[in-house]
Write a structure and sequence with these properties.
The chain has helices at about 5-20, 70-90, 95-100, 100-115, 125-130, 135-140, and strands at about 25-35, 40-50, 50-55, 60-65. It is of the alpha+beta class and about 160 residues long. The N and C termini lie far apart (about 60 Å).
Length: about 160
């Protein structure tokens, strides 16, 4: 790997020092980068006085090398942790926003719950069908020629002229 720029090494060193108690970071080496689902995760080997850490970015986190002997193991755990955290926060909305779209948001959260509970993708009452309906009340509907609101555009296949 090419030599690590000083500002990058300083950022990683400062991060490790902020997260580990009484164990000063010394040598920082970049050991690789991986693009996963459009995000680049940089991986670093950090030598401290009494321990060694893997530091992985996007978001930045550190993993003790005693727990993860290979950087690939730490990366897999890092990706899984990120997915878990995203899943946990996917149905959170600021209270002011939730009041504005309360009915739609309630149906959206119900659809997410149903998807989590679905045992089979082809189950009766598939959650995906319920998932598309919550967005309709949350969006502004354009006015039609007669001044009434259009709630749905015609289906592109069913309403195609012959």
């Amino acid at each position: 790997m090419p030599e690590l720029p000083e500002h990058e090494a300083r950022y990683i060193r400062d991060y490790v020092n902020s997260q580990s108690q009484d164990d000063e970071a010394g040598l920082v080496q970049k050991v690789g980068s991986r693009r996963v689902m459009g995000r680049v995760h940089d991986m670093y080997d950090v030598h401290c006085e009494r321990s060694r850490w893997w530091v992985i970015t996007e978001p930045t986190n550190l993993y003790l090398q005693d727990d993860f002997p290979e950087v690939e193991q730490a990366l897999i755990f890092h990706l899984g942790l990120g997915i878990f955290m995203a899943e946990r926060s996917r149905a959170e909305l600021p209270e002011a926003e939730e009041e504005r779209v309360s009915g739609a948001w309630r149906r959206f959260k119900q659809a997410l719950s149903d998807m989590d509970d679905a045992g089979h993708p082809w189950a009766r009452n598939p959650p995906a069908l319920r998932l598309r309906h919550p967005a309709v009340p949350a969006c502004r509907c354009p006015l039609g020629r007669d001044g009434r609101h259009l709630h749905r555009a015609p289906h592109p296949i069913r309403h195609r002229p012959l």
